């Protein structure tokens, strides 16, 4: 044997290893002589890989077995009843979402059956005016579902290479919503809000400069919507070749996109008016008010209208279900103020009760709030802001005293910023008895 030949015994397999490079004996401790050869490392890696695959199969089967109970708890009528507790009107949109989510569960249940029938995803596109309940509906739906749900603002996304968030951020948000469970992430739901903001600029608004936040983002979303392996780094970590990454298959992730799509009703109207028929749709809506006209037009949106708006055809093909929401009239806004579980009026009543104050609103005051919201053209989104403006001085002054009071908000408080009616309530014997009972309990 040549003098310069190096040999060492592997601590695992006990074989005599001839060392020609560092890779023949990747692990070696010169102090103790402990060493592991490359063959043993390969075998160990293969064992770990096989074990992970087996555990993944077990987790997948357990997830599918649990779907029976999930399906029972999330039938379409149950989902709609839940949304009815928080969202006023928009019954058609609630039904579409309820069926889409239920079918998503059923698709997961059927995906391992070897009958050569592949059920395609039914991704949803939602459109409606600002403040009509799109984001609120999805937020409450997220609380009900037993699968991960994440909301991402599409307007913050840019093409790869530009400053901003890459499209992979949407999947990464879902990954963290699933507590870093890859199996649950791959069967979750992603909601892309403000989707209309990434419509490509066309016509007279076309720009010769780079457009990193529009058509390029749609192109980047194509494979993700259809189903592709998405690779991303940990949150807050920059992309570079040596950064550890996580891979997620989006084949079974349901995508719901939503936006106001401002101006699409004009595209629909032009299309309908181009019909030469004497009983055309355009003539029927001329006498209606603006909101009614908008609601009638938005219901007739077609994929061709979305293409003219600036959504590329490939994206539209991957969003087969169009869900439209109508504008909220005064009566609907009035119901939103008082009926849902988290209604703004109920929130303020609870806040004021902490200061021993009973808060009441007259019906005229609530109607004044609704009219003000309609004038602002921001829908239900502005209701709480209007109430906050009217109650700012009250919420500042009343905590100065702990005596029992009743505050009545009138229409003048909303319309003219007048002072509310404040009545000091004397503590009667019934109240003292009731308080004693409460303390005794």
UniProtKB/TrEMBL annotation:
AAA+ ATPase domain sequence ranges: 120-344
Any single Gene Ontology cellular-component annotation: HslUV protease complex
Gene3D superfamilies given in the database record: 1.10.8.60, P-loop containing nucleotide triphosphate hydrolases
Matches recorded under SMART domains: AAA, ClpB_D2-small
UniProt cross-references to InterPro entries, sorted A to Z: AAA+_ATPase (IPR003593), ATP-dep_Clp_protease_ClpX (IPR050052), ATPase_AAA_core (IPR003959), Clp_ATPase_C (IPR019489), Clp_protease_ATP-bd_su_ClpX (IPR004487), P-loop_NTPase (IPR027417)
UniProt KW keywords: ATP-binding, Chaperone, Hydrolase, Nucleotide-binding, Protease, Zinc
GO biological process, one term: cell division
Pfam families recorded: AAA_2, ClpB_D2-small
Superkingdom as given in the UniProt entry: Bacteria
All residue ranges annotated as the Clp ATPase C-terminal domain in the record: 328-422
Annotated protein name in UniProt: ATP-dependent Clp protease ATP-binding subunit ClpX
Molecular function via GO: ATP binding; ATP hydrolysis activity; ATP-dependent protein folding chaperone; peptidase activity; unfolded protein binding
Organism: Pectinatus brassicae
């Amino acid at each position: 044997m040549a003098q310069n030949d190096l040999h060492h015994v592997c601590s695992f397999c006990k074989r005599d290893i001839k060392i020609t490079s560092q890779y023949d004996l990747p692990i070696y401790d010169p102090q103790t002589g402990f060493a592991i050869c490359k063959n043993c490392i390969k075998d160990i890696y293969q064992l770990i890989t096989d074990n992970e695959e087996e555990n993944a199969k077990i987790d997948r089967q357990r997830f599918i077995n649990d779907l029976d109970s999930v399906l029972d708890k999330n039938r379409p009528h149950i989902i709609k009843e839940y949304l009815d507790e928080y969202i006023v009107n928009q019954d058609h949109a609630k039904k579409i979402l309820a069926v889409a989510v239920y079918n998503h569960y059923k698709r997961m249940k059927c995906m391992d059956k070897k009958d050569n029938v592949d059920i395609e995803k039914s991704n949803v596109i939602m459109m409606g005016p600002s403040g009509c309940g799109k984001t609120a509906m999805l937020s409450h739906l997220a609380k009900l579902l037993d699968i991960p749900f994440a909301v991402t603002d599409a307007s913050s996304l840019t093409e790869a290479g530009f400053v901003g968030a890459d499209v992979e951020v949407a999947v990464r948000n879902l990954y963290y919503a699933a507590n870093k469970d890859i199996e649950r992430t791959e069967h979750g739901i992603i909601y892309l809000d403000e989707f209309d903001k990434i419509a490509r600029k066309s016509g007279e608004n076309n720009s010769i400069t780079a457009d990193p936040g529009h058509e390029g983002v749609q192109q980047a979303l194509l494979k993700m919507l259809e189903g592709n392996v998405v690779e991303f780094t940990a949150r807050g970590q920059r992309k570079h070749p040596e950064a550890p990454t996580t891979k997620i298959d989006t084949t079974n992730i349901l995508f719901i996109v939503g936006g106001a799509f401002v101006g699409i009703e004009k595209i629909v109207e032009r299309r309908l008016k181009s019909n030469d028929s004497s009983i055309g749709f355009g003539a029927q809506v001329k006498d209606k008010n603006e909101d009614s006209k908008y609601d009638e037009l938005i219901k007739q949106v077609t994929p061709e209208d979305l293409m003219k708006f600036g959504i590329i055809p490939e994206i539209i093909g991957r969003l087969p279900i169009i869900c439209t929401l109508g504008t909220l009239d005064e009566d609907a806004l009035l119901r939103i103020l008082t009926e849902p579980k988290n209604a703004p009026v109920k929130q303020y009543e609870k806040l004021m009760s902490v200061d021993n104050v009973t808060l009441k609103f007259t019906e005229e005051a609530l109607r004044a709030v609704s009219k003000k919201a309609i004038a602002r053209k921001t829908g239900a989104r502005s209701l709480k802001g209007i109430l906050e403006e009217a109650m700012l001085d009250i919420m500042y002054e009343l905590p100065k005293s702990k005596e029992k009071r009743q505050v009545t908000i009138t229409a003048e408080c909303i319309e003219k910023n007048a002072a509310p009616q404040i009545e000091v309530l004397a503590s009667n014997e019934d109240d003292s008895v009731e308080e004693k009972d409460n303390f005794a309990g």
